[in-house]
Amino acid sequence: MRYAILFTLIAISISAAATDEGAESITYDVLQLEGKLFLGAEPDEKRMRIGDQAVSGDRLRTGSSSSAAIGIPSHTTIFRLQAKTTCTLAHDRPGVLLHLERGRLRALFGSHTGADPRLVTTPSAVLAVRGTEYGLKVKKNGATEIVVFSGVVEVNDPSGKNPPIRVEAGQRSRIKTGRPPGSPEPHRLTPNYWDQGRSTPPSGMGAGGLNSGAQSGASGASGAGAGAGAGGKQGGGKKHGG
User: 82 versus 221: which is more confidently predicted?
Assistant: First the structure.
């Protein structure tokens, strides 16, 4: 898979990132970009390019018909942001790599030997990684949907008043703001379908179609890798501080 190439590039840059950044700061690399990616808050946003870097506390936003793959060298993690997505990097809770305010993303986690947790938050959920790949969507009202493609994700509500639930590969959960996580239910999506913006697979797809779709999804999941190679001509990298 082409994403394996991106994880290799991330591993190579871990030493440099550890040298350049303090222990409490995380570096985020723009690995792939189609369309527009902005850093900062309006009206002072800056447009980013492939090779640019962001750091803890920065805010990112993708434009219409845009997508971006953001890599975290120190945590062997890639977030693929879809169109009209807004997020804050390394939010205000220890261990949080990204806070998704609104929009959609797909998260991929490689092998990680560090002791630091890898958490993702939304207005209505806290996600702890127990697996390698999942899709995440946040609506305007803060409601969250988690779709797990491989591994297991532990889902908590931000208040911590309710017990966490485990969402396993092939399952999804929906969480409303201020409510406990919804019970897991099966889904038939592939990473490829998720990247197309689908919440359900194409109508009429049987079991055989799901299997072939999964194979297509495994290949399609690496689309950002191809974009990184082709899009590298867009410009040199810059590092931005938040």
Answer: 82
